[in-house]
Amino acid sequence: MADTKITALATGTTVHSDDWLLFVDTHDTSMASSGTDKKVSPANALKGMGTIASGQLPTIVAGSSGQIQYNSSGAFGGASSILVGANGQLNLAAIANASNQVAGDVWFDSTQLCPVHFDGSATSANCLNAYRSGIIFSQVAKVTIAASGYSSLLSTSGALGSNTLQAGYLNVVGRTIRITMGGYCSSAVSSPGTFSPVLKLGSNVVATDGNSGFTANKSNTSFVGQIQITTKATGASGKLDITGWFASPDAGAFTSNLIRICNGTSMGSPAPQTQVTLDLTAGYTLDFGFNLSASTNSIIMTNFVIEVLA
Q: Which residue, 91, 109, 133, sits at the end of a domain?
């Protein structure tokens, strides 16, 4: 055996942690000027390899470019639904709800087109699917309006995100968008007139209320509001239901304590019983403002946030 060439030895297919590997230590010339034969464990052999240049390792697992590798029943493979992008970003490909979810699962749902967390309990049987997204727009600049007629209270200057909903973004049953807002207003000493809140998608009025009155002789009186948009049917004749409210928590900026906003396709003409029909395969820029009957008041929007809940 001592006179057998290495190339003549039997071929092994598995290296165990307690095996020995043969190598030539070129830094030890006690055996020959070219180096000394020595043994090394597989673990220590890897430690001594240092930085491995590109292309020096053989392909040992399957999968496509960008796929994360994982151990499945002892074999490595590519996770087709978990990718790493060209700039290092993690990407979850859209998949259907699995029937064997366990607590802590996260995936990108192919029906709702948003991230889903299976959580709420440490016990899988007690968990629920939590459809999650987040803020897509947050206004930074104040907007002041005073002119009669419709004026927008939104500004994209310096804003976080975008108030433009891309084509098909609303074309998902159950898609829910929540708008929260706040600001303050001042009114004329007498006969301040009326206003109606107006929510638009593109040029389309989709929610409004009848004319409400300003309380006369108010200065820098705060108001807050909230609106929710939910897709009920999809397609070119998609259906939306929209509900919301406004209130002035201090000193009563408006003659009504609580002002609604609901379905309606004409300014000042609410129709809460009639869903809004709109082509939801298209994209729209969301806008909100007041339709004022007089130019003797000023309304200032300080905060306007759009969140996607599902």
A: 133
For residue 230, give the H/E element and its range. Answer: strand 221-233
| 178 and 203 share one domain | yes
**For 186-196, what is each residue's pLDDT tens digit?**
999 999 999 99
E-state strands within 61-213: 67-72, 75-84, 90-92, 94-95, 106-109, 115-119, 128-131, 134-138, 143-145, 149-152, 160-161, 164-165, 176-186, 194-201, 204-208, 212-213
Q: Is 215 a member of any domain?
A: yes
Tell me, yes or no, whether 94 and 115 share the same domain: yes
H runs (alpha helix) in the chain: 42-47
Tell me, yes or no, whether 232 and 289 share the same domain: yes
Long-range contacts of 239-245 (CB under 8 A, 24+ apart): 239/275, 239/276, 239/277, 239/278, 240/170, 240/206, 240/275, 240/276, 240/278, 240/280, 241/275, 241/276, 242/199, 242/206, 242/207, 242/276, 243/272, 244/179, 244/199, 244/207
Q: What is the pTM of this model?
A: 0.75
| CB contact at 8 A, 164 and 177 | no
